[in-house]
Specification:
Blueprint (H helix, E strand, L loop, with lengths): L4 E6 L5 H13 L23 E2 L1 H4 L6 H10 L1 E8 L1 H4 L2 H14 L4 E5 L4 H4 L18 E2 H4 L1 H13 L3 H16 L2 H16 L5 H11 L5 H13 L3 H15 L9 H20 L3 H21 L4 H20 L3 H21 L4 H22 L2 H21 L4 H20 L3 H21 L4 H20 L3 H21 L4 H19 L9 H8 L2 H7 L3 H15 L21 H15 L1
Parallel strand pairs: 1-2, 1-3, 3-4, 4-5
Length: about 600
């Protein structure tokens, strides 16, 4: 059953103001866009927590307080206990902990220390398990860590992501959001006033120009954007973005200060991200072009300034991504190459900075992925991935055991293995996958709870099986597919709201079917067994939101039944986005089988 609440807040009435503040923070927090969250505490989008239960809000009309608490506890994914000297003495808090433990066990009870120490502020019920064994849970510590960091620790646990990665990505997002506050804040003022004021006097016009240049505080931008998104007013946010973009388009940059130019570029990239998330790639391209013009102006003033080289590199990166998504692959390749060249300039300035090596690795990875997915140019892709590995290895040597660096190394080895598989070099592909496995094992030791590592280790099993299938060794692939499918099914069962996990289970089944169809007819299972593995392709398309998987499913139906395969729903790159399927080649395989059957 899907939980109604992400969190049940248990607290003493004396901590009511803190409880209200924490409830508001949790309900408005969103995971950074590049992190994969999920689990029972999160809504379907994987980034937003479900509502938080706080009894003063939820039980005002409940006729039976005990019944209402019991119902809310059963409908909550986690309990957060606000620990203070007052709550340590509260019988009500103790009762709530006991009821939640009976319903959900110990693992989902998360202490949050408001004041004091664990010895003075933990309710006694927290200090032992249901069977009476002693327990000293690790608490998120507001006095020791600060409120935001402590609350991020709770979110990391509920999302199943690394605390270090969440803090880093959260900080990066906040920096991006607060940049350019003056320009956005005044642009909002200009847009709103334009709707109600027909004739502006000279003083208002001067004010508009002043704020457009960026003279208000960065905090104002942070607060404004957060409030618009929190209120769900994406329509107003879009109108504001359009107003800013229109007022800045073609603006003479020569009169702006360096600080204003920096704010302008960061805000334009933030707007481009908003546009891209809405699917408006035309608007996103316009914003990236303006950001590019702005960072180019900054760089021209100080060509060897690392901060300005980095800023212009980010403009090139966003230009490449938006162009790729819009089908402009040549433009994307040009932008990614410029991104790499700028990152290489950073290395030439300071080879001891791991972040610069990471930028080179990211750029080479982008170029390799584009070459592979768009054209299946395995020679070019391999060259780029090998260069990316060298850059990430240099970063790893300078900053050992960094999560992002190790994940980048593992991902690049996976891309290299796929490239070698498609190039018809299975032994090289297996060697790259073995190196990937070693890195994932290293990450698992560093953080056994890292959900992304767990997911990647299951995907590794699928990847090895695909190497065997494409090398013409289906019998070698089938045991690995069966074992990997069981692991994927366990992950999906533990996270029933996660559509991507369910899709992974289906892909294991479809690859099992493909392997079996590669056997001679006499060695295949009966038609009913094959049909079960094939499953319901229309249901896959409707419920899993994965056209590439549904297309592959329909191709296998055609191959299994000897009928013509239907047209593909997916288009664009030669390889699909998630699983790197060459659907055109798969379709040709099915058509040849159908022609042979005739």
């Amino acid at each position: 059953m899907t939980p109604r609440y992400s969190v049940f807040l248990s607290y003493n009435r004396g901590d009511g103001k803190a409880a209200q503040r924490i409830q508001r923070w949790l309900e408005t927090y969103r995971l950074p866009r590049r992190l994969q969250g999920g689990g029972p505490a999160f809504a379907d989008d994987g980034r937003r927590l479900r509502p938080v239960f706080r009894d003063i809000d939820e039980m005002r009309v409940a006729p039976d307080i005990d019944a209402a608490v019991i119902e809310a506890i059963g409908a909550s994914a986690y309990m957060v206990v606000l620990c203070s000297p007052a709550s340590a003495k509260s019988e009500w808090v103790a009762r709530e902990i006991a009821m939640f433990r009976a319903a959900h066990g110990d693992d989902r009870i998360l202490p949050l220390l408001l004041e004091g120490t664990p010895e003075t502020s933990f309710p006694p019920a927290l200090l032992h398990r249901a069977d009476g064994r002693a327990l000293m849970p690790l608490a998120a510590d507001i006095p020791g860590e600060g409120e935001r960091l402590a609350l991020l620790k709770l979110v990391a646990v509920m999302a199943g992501v690394s605390m270090a990665v969440l803090v880093q990505r959260d900080a990066q997002r906040r920096l991006q959001q607060i940049a350019g506050a003056a320009a956005l804040a005044i642009a909002v003022l200009a847009v709103v006033l334009a709707l109600v004021v027909q004739n502006m006097n000279a003083r208002l016009a001067e004010e508009k120009q002043r704020v457009r240049a960026g003279t208000l505080s960065n905090y104002m931008l942070d607060d404004l954007r957060a409030q618009l998104k929190r209120a769900g007013r994406l329509d107003l946010l879009t109108a504001v973005n359009e107003g800013v973009a229109k007022s800045w388009r073609g603006q003479d940059l020569s009169g702006l200060s360096d600080a204003d130019l920096q704010q302008r570029a960061k805000l334009l990239l933030a707007i481009a991200e908003d546009d891209e998330s809405r699917g408006d790639l035309v608007a996103a391209r316009v914003q990236t072009e303006e950001a590019m013009r702005t960072t180019a102006q900054l760089l021209a003033k100080a060509p060897n300034d690392p901060a300005r080289i980095f800023a212009h590199a980010q403009s090139q990166y966003y230009t490449g991504m938006v162009s790729w998504r819009g089908g402009e692959r040549t433009r994307a390749a040009t932008a990614f190459a410029a991104y790499r060249d700028l990152a290489s300039r950073l290395i030439a300035i300071d080879r001891s900075k791991p972040d610069w090596w990471m930028e080179v690795g990211y750029a080479e990875n982008n170029l390799g992925t584009l070459a592979l997915r768009a054209r299946i140019d395995t020679a070019a892709a391999q060259e780029h991935f090998l260069s990316a590995l060298k850059a990430f290895a240099a970063a790893d040597a300078l900053r050992p055991d960094n999560h992002d660096t190790l994940m980048s190394l593992a991902d690049t080895e996976a891309w290299l293995a796929d490239t070698q598989r498609l190039a018809g070099a299975p032994e090289q592909a297996l060697a790259a996958r073995a190196r990937q496995k070693g890195i994932l094992d290293r990450l698992a030791v560093l953080d056994p709870q890292d959900r992304q590592v767990t997911t990647d280790r299951v995907a590794y099993e699928l990847a090895l099986a695909r190497i065997s299938i494409e090398a013409g060794r289906p019998d070698e692939a089938l045991p690995r597919l069966s074992d990997g499918k069981d692991k994927a099914a366990t992950l999906a069962a533990n996270d029933p709201q996660n559509v991507r996990r369910r899709a992974q289970v289906r892909m294991f089944s479809l690859m099992q079917l493909k392997a079996l169809l590669l056997r001679p007819p006499a060695r295949r299972p009966d038609a009913a067994t094959l049909a079960v593995l094939n499953g319901d392709c229309a249901k896959d398309r409707a419920t899993l939101k994965a056209d590439e998987l549904a297309d592959f499913c329909e191709i296998l139906v055609a191959r299994r039944t000897g009928t013509p395969p239907p047209p593909l729903a997916t288009g664009g790159d030669r390889l699909t986005e998630r699983w790197g399927l060459d659907l055109a080649a798969e379709r040709n395989w099915a058509m040849k089988a159908e022609e042979k059957a005739r």
